[in-house]
């Protein structure tokens, strides 16, 4: 008996026999292994003592699955053998870790076990130890690892509670969604508000059918939606794996597992298998149960790869973060909800040992190639229009994201409805609803951004110092996974680089330098940063730092004056890159960035903690003399724009002070200038105001690239007329300590643009202008202008806004000059404490204040009567309301400020006029006609108009279409795309309906092209009913094609098109489509793909049915008599029987009478149609809200189709676009 399944361990282990070792008996014909008497089962390895060439070996491991004998090279040397005794071999051995090991040779020796001695051949391998990890097959055999062998479905009774595996900062509460007969647990956020928790639980109970607690609750996804297929590459033949031996004691437990899969319907018995895989039973940790894995490696090798793109994990993590409310869902049994294609089931066949049998998989199981791509494709088909909007999906991990709980409940309902429609089931024990933070793809996502999973941090924090090169590589692999969170990672792990360069024979050394770097890395990861998701439309700032051996960068974005981390980057420098000095490197990189239009700015001050930390982590040991003072300076900001049109010229300027105050100004230019000159005038106006208020640090923003780049010195100014403005700008800029000018998009400069257009007359509103009768560059001081033109009127000036209040919008806007020349002498006044406008009208409070101060004054009786409701406190006027509460009285300008604050300020939510009025009174303010002013402000709010509800009430009366004769006008429309398509591949139906008789024609089509449309018109309309006068269609691509227009013109047919996105304009076609769809649906219950076959039956039923408008059937209006039905022939109706008794003269008489009646029937039908049209028009016109527009009016346009979402705003997309100016009425 040749024992060829022995692996011996080195003697230095000095191991003793196992306490429960199987009895081993070696006979002349067989080897018998018996269980120990004191144990029911034996799951430990079989170790033996023996002798090799007479020398004792303490532990030899017997493995029933090994294909050869292995002996460590160290043991070979201890036996006193030399290398020249080895027989050379080219065998390459593959270990479980995938690393190839070359056998040094083959050694023959006498192996003694008990009283038996046999000659045995050993493969000598140079490894530290030859234990179970190094037991292996020949290279021709494949590895049996978790990546190559599939698993069965998971046990429902073994699923861990969510609280054990789901990481969330919110405590979870288990809720029962069942009806009380059987527990149906899942998990919700315990800290959720009570009313929202009730709504979530009610929603879960409503959609409890999309959960699955047991196998029979998972019917699987429809085969029409998705099936897993296993095509075979050309040249591969079916392969049957040889049986795999394993412990016979596992047979019973394997059979239990197979019975469980059969009962669940996941497998079925197989006969005549061509492809055959073997099973690998694996004992589950802790439970002792068996998991049956299938070795599909040969099948997978013959299957081509499915190139369906999988989602990018980093992008999905970013998209899932930044939301207030998140729900995490997990697909139940994942792959097992997808069926195998019927023709490919036999390829998944596997055999079980002994009497258990041969089976094949009915569902897609783990381990099959392309299973992940098939599952992801199914998820994308189910949620195609919701991906990236309300949810993210990576295989079976689903995240529903929202920015509010109310919206989240609606989003969950939408997702649940989609799951119910397609039969997708979730695992309730792995779901969490309504949390604010949770783990997705290994990272924690929440409103603030993305951060590292605390469990990963704990593992790294508890990680022990490496003891070999391989452990260092493992450590770096874990750390590199977190690269975006670690500042200067390359610098932190630089101490490990010498270890990575060690050769195999070199000794491993872990010194103090490596230990210090290791501890620093763990300390850093104890408080990792939170990274933000980049926001579109906002500029990025890239900070770069260079050390001697490392370069690092941090990408940030600024929001609300604070910078946030997007990602960290770092790498080691090549040797050639370390030679230039540090300043030389920075200069080189700054020059290279110019190619990408990225401006380089030297760091002058640290504006936030991010930059400070970044500098600290890129510390360079350079001795600096003197002290470095870092001062944060908040500059003035100027947003400028100019407008030049046929109505005039104007400029708009918006100023922001360092303390957050906002000032706006419109300037009317009473002289001609080009648009570029108007832009320069706006910039000069803002610069002069900055000079007057004593600003030293200024930032300017404009949407004119020419002006910005000329002032920045990037473009040369070759126009002499613009040179004057440029020189004046540079003269003022020279007086500032720091000045920066930047180009921004027009949409980011909308406020200044509105002010400029308002001043030029392009977009006129009520208000004031500052008029300049000469270019800005020629006047010196706006303060002097204000003083000279407004002598003696200082008591009527009012400060624009509330001095010292942060974030207030102090509007200096001026408009509506046309028709008000008397206001042109009221300029803008600028000073160090603010910008001031002279009073524009009488203050309504002055008479009351004067009377309350001196009741002896002679005033109007109305003032004396009103004075009883007012009082003075510290010089301010207050009004007593009906409850006796005092309300502070405001003038016109102050009322605008508070309305703006309440409606669109920090705490404003764009309330309606009535809510604004209520809030203002509640806040303690009053002025006359408050409600009227609130309505004016509310209706004039651009944001409220932009995002306002779309009024569905019709804007014009209904104009019915009446065709007074058969086949004079037809309505055409497509139905589709239809899913599922017909068995012949038809995806559309083309329907034509006659306006008078309601006769319908329809054909199924595979494609919706102009060729099929022209063929239909020719064969089904013209050749059957003659040339019509009109054809009415929608504005589809096929109907509006040049070929169709040319065809209709050649026949003299007038082609009419309805309004886009307005189905009522082609109501006849929509009505016929609706009727035909209902008829077809009722005939295809058992065979939905045969709808093309029953289409003619539906047309027949439509033609012989009485129409509600005509009160007769379309068949009778066309042919003059009713159709003969099959039932009349089968049972014999009176008119059918009597026809046989009529003579030829009788037939002539009867036909003549029928033809005479046809005209009467058609006239009667025309009367009925007119009555019906009037009835419908009367009901429709009751809802009409007429809108009359004139040329020149500014209007908003509805974004069609309704519900369209832009890429920029997504779920928050506006309902309207504009405003547009009416150019003409058609």
Automatic annotation (TrEMBL):
It comes from the Eukaryota. It holds the Pfam family RT_RNaseH_2. Residues 1155-1183 form a coiled coil. Signal peptide: none annotated. InterPro entries: DNA/RNA_pol_sf (IPR043502), Integrase_cat-core (IPR001584), Integrase_H2C2 (IPR041588), Peptidase_aspartic_dom_sf (IPR021109), Retrovirus_Pol_polyprotein (IPR050951), Rev_trsase/Diguanyl_cyclase (IPR043128), RNaseH-like_sf (IPR012337), RNaseH_domain (IPR002156). PROSITE patterns: INTEGRASE, RNASE_H_1. Keywords: Coiled coil, DNA recombination, Endonuclease, Hydrolase, Multifunctional enzyme, Nuclease, Nucleotidyltransferase, Transferase. Residues 632-761 form the RNase H type-1 domain. GO terms for molecular function: nucleic acid binding; nucleotidyltransferase activity; RNA-DNA hybrid ribonuclease activity. GO terms for biological process: DNA integration; DNA recombination. The keyword Coiled coil applies. Residues 792-811 are annotated as: Disordered. PANTHER family: PROTEIN CBG26694 (PTHR37984), PROTEIN NYNRIN-LIKE (PTHR37984:SF5). This is Retrotransposon protein, putative, unclassified.
């Amino acid at each position: 008996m040749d024992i060829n399944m022995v692996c011996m361990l080195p003697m230095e282990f000095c191991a003793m026999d196992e306490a429960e070792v199987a009895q081993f008996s070696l006979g002349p014909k067989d080897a018998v292994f018996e269980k120990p008497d004191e144990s029911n089962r034996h799951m430990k390895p079989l170790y033996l003592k023996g002798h090799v060439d007479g020398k004792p070996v303490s532990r030899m491991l017997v493995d029933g699955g090994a294909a050869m004998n292995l002996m460590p090279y160290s043991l070979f040397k201890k036996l006193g053998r030399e290398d020249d005794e080895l027989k050379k071999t080219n065998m390459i051995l593959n270990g479980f870790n995938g690393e190839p090991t070359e056998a040094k040779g083959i050694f023959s020796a006498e192996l003694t076990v008990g009283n038996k001695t046999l000659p045995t051949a050993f493969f000598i391998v140079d490894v530290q130890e030859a234990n179970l990890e190094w037991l292996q097959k020949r290279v021709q055999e494949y590895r049996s690892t978790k990546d190559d062998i599939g698993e069965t479905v998971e046990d429902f009774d073994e699923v861990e509670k969510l609280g054990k595996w789901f990481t969330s900062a919110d405590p979870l509460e288990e809720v029962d969604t069942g009806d009380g007969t059987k527990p149906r647990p899942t998990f919700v956020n315990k800290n959720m508000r009570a009313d929202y928790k009730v709504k979530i639980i009610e929603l879960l109970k409503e959609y409890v059918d999309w959960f699955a607690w047991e196998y029979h609750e998972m019917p699987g996804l429809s085969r029409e939606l998705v099936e897993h297929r296993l095509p075979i590459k050309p040249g591969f033949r079916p392969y049957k794996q040889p049986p795999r031996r394993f412990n016979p004691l596992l047979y019973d437990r394997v059979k239990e597992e197979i019975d469980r899969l059969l009962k669940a319907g996941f497998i079925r018995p197989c006969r005549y298998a061509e492809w055959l895989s073997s099973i690998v039973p694996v004992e589950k940790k802790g439970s002792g149960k068996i998991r049956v894995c299938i070795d599909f490696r040969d099948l997978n090798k013959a299957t081509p790869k499915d190139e369906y793109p999988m989602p990018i994990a980093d992008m999905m993590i970013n998209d899932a973060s930044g939301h207030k409310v998140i729900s995490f869902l997990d697909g139940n049994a994942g792959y097992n909800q997808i069926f195998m294609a019927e023709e490919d089931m036999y390829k998944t066949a596997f055999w079980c040992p002994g009497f258990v049998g041969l089976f094949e998989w009915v569902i897609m199981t783990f381990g099959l190639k392309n299973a992940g791509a098939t599952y992801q494709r199914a998820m994308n088909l189910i949620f195609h229009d919701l991906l990236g909007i309300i949810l993210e999906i990576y295989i079976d991990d689903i995240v529903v994201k929202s920015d509010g709980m109310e919206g989240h409940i609606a989003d969950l309902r939408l997702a649940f409805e989609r799951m119910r429609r397609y039969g997708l089931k979730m695992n309730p024990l792995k779901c969490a609803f309504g949390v604010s933070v949770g783990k997705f793809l290994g990272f924690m996502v929440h409103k603030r951004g993305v951060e590292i999973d605390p469990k990963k941090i704990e593992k790294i924090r508890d990680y022990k110092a490496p003891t070999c090169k391989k452990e260092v590589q493992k450590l770096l692999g874990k750390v590199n996974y977190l690269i975006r969170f670690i500042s200067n990672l390359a610098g932190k792990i630089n101490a490990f680089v010498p270890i990575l360069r060690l050769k195999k024979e070199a000794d491993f050394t872990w010194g103090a330098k490596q230990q210090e770097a290791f501890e620093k890395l763990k300390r850093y990861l104890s408080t990792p940063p939170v990274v933000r998701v980049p926001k579109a439309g906002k500029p990025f700032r890239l900070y770069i730092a260079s050390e001697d051996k490392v370069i690092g960068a941090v990408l940030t974005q600024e929001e609300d004056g604070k910078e946030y981390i997007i990602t960290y980057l770092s790498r080691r420098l090549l040797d050639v890159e370390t030679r230039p000095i540090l300043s030389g490197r920075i200069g080189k990189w700054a020059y290279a960035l110019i190619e990408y239009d990225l401006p380089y700015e030297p760091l002058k001050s640290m504006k936030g903690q991010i930059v400070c930390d970044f500098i600290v982590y890129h510390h360079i040991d350079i001795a600096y003399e003197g002290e470095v003072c870092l001062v944060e300076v908040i500059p003035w900001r100027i947003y400028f724009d100019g407008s030049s049109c046929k109505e005039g010229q104007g400029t708009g300027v918006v100023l922001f002070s360092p303390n957050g105050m906002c000032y706006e100004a419109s300037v009317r230019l009473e002289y001609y200038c080009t648009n570029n000159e108007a832009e320069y005038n706006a910039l000069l106006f803002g610069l002069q105001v900055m000079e007057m208020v004593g600003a030293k640090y200024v930032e300017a923003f404009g949407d004119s690239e020419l002006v910005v780049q000329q002032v920045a010195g990037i473009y040369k100014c070759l126009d002499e007329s613009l040179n004057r403005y440029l020189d004046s700008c540079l003269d003022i800029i020279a007086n500032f300590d720091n000045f920066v000018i930047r180009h921004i998009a027009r949409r980011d400069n909308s406020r200044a643009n509105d002010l400029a257009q308002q001043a030029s007359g392009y977009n006129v509103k009520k208000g004031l202008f500052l008029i300049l009768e000469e270019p800005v560059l020629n006047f010196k001081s706006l303060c002097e202008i204000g003083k000279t033109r407004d002598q003696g009127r200082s008591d009527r000036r009012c400060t624009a806004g509330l001095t010292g209040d942060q974030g207030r919008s102090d509007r200096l806007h001026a408009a509506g000059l046309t028709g008000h020349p008397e206001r042109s002498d009221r300029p803008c006044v600028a000073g160090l404490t603010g910008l001031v406008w002279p009073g524009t009208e009488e203050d309504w409070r002055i008479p009351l204040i004067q009377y309350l101060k001196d009741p002896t004054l002679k005033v109007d009786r109305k003032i004396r009567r009103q004075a009883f409701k007012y009082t003075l406190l510290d010089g301010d006027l207050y009004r007593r309301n009906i409850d006796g509460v005092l309300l502070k009285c405001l003038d016109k300008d102050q009322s605008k400020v508070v309305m703006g604050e309440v409606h669109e300020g920090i705490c404003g939510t764009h309330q309606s006029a009535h809510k604004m009025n209520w809030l203002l009174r509640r806040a303690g303010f009053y002025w006359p006609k408050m409600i009227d002013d609130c309505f004016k402000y509310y209706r004039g709010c651009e944001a409220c108009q932009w995002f306002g509800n779309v009024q569905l009430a019709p804007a014009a009366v209904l104009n019915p279409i009446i065709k007074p004769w058969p086949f004079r006008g037809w309505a055409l429309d497509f139905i589709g795309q239809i899913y599922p398509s017909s068995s012949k591949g038809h995806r559309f139906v083309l329907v034509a309906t006659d306006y008078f008789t309601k006769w319908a024609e329809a054909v199924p089509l595979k494609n919706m092209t102009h060729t099929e449309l022209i063929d239909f018109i020719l064969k089904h309309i013209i050749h059957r009913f003659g040339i019509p006068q009109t054809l009415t269609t929608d504005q589809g691509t096929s109907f509006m094609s040049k070929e169709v227009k040319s065809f209709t013109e050649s026949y003299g047919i007038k082609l009419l098109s309805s309004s886009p996105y307005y189905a009522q304009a082609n109501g006849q076609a929509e009505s016929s489509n609706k009727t035909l769809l209902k008829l077809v649906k009722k005939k295809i219950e058992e065979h939905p793909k045969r709808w093309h076959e029953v289409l003619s039956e539906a047309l027949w039923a439509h033609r012989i049915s009485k129409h509600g408008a005509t009160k007769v059937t379309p068949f009778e209006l066309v042919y003059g008599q009713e159709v003969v039905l099959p039932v009349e022939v089968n049972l014999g109706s009176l008119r059918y029987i009597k026809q046989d008794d009529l003579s030829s003269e009788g037939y002539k008489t009867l036909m003549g009478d029928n033809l005479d009646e046809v005209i009467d029937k058609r006239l009667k039908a025309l009367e009925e149609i007119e009555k019906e049209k009037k009835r419908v028009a009367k009901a429709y016109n009751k809802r009409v809200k007429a809108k009359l527009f004139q040329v020149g009016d500014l209007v908003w346009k509805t974004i069609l189709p309704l519900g369209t979402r832009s890429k920029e705003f997504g779920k928050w997309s506006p309902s309207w676009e504009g405003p547009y100016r009416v150019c003409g009425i058609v």
